[in-house]
Amino acid sequence: MPVVDSTQYIPLIQGMTDSFNDFIGNEQSDWLLSIAHDLCDPAQSRGILCAEGPNNTWRHITALEPLRDTRYLYELPPTAVVELCKIWLLKNECTTDSAGRAGAMRTAVLERDDDTCWISRAFSTHDTYVTSHICPKTMGGVQASHILQTFCGYQGANVGIFHPMFGITLSRNLEPFFSSYRLGFRRIGSSNRYKVHCFFTTPTNIFGTSPVPGLPLPLLLEIVLKDAPWPGHPDNPPPGLFRWHYLQCVLRHYATQEYRLLPNISYHEVPLPTEGDSE
Fold it and tell me: Pseudo-torsion of CA 44, 139, 249, 192, nearest 10°?
C-alpha cells in the first residue's frame, strides 16, 4: 500500500456514511468513485479510489465494496491535469430576457415533453407546469458549453443555454426542489432510467406536497424514471447534464469548506435583461 502525505491533498466532500445511505444503494463505494470522477476528471474518469489504511497508507478499493466511515483518496495518473468541477452558488435567477429566448425555450420544452411532468408523469396545461433549468440560464452559453463538452462529450454545433436540452418539465411544487439542488436524478447504470434522489428529509410525494392520510401517492424517494416523457426525442437532455446537476446536489450538501473557498471555484453569473418573457 502506498504511503501518502495527506497534507498534499484537498478534502472535497465530507459526511458520515449513514448520511449517504439513501443515495449509494447497491452502488456502495462505486457511488463515491463516480462522484470523484465527476469532481476531478469528468471527461475521462481515469482515477481510482483508495481507502485509508494504517500508518498513512492507502489501499485500492474493489468494485461495489461497502462504503465505510473512513477517509478516501481519489488517485489519478501522475500526468493527469486536474480541473476541479466548479460550484454553482445559489443566486437570484433572472426569469426573463429581452430576446424572448427563455419564453421560446419554455414553449419548446413543454411541447417536447407533451406537457408532462418528468416525475409524476401527470399531464397538465402550460399554466400548471414550468420549465426547470438543468444548468441555470444566468450561467450563460460559454460555461454551459464547457459542461456539455466535459460531462457529455458533446462535439456538435454550438448551442446556447436556452436550448431545450437544458430544460425539463416539472410541476410548480417540484421545480423549487430541482432548481435549488435538493432533488436530483441518479442514472441507473448506462440505461435511460433514473432514480430520484432527495437531498432533504421531509416526506414529499410525486406532486411535491406532503403525504395526505388516505391518499396513497408514491413518495419521491420511491420513484424510478423509466425514460423521458418522449423517449428518443433529439432535444432530450443528454445523461451528462443530469450528472452535472446531480453533482451540484452533492456539492451543495457535502462540499468541504476548503473546497468552497478555493479561488475561482464557483461559476460566474452572466447578467440577463429582464423583459419580454413570461416564464
Answer: -60
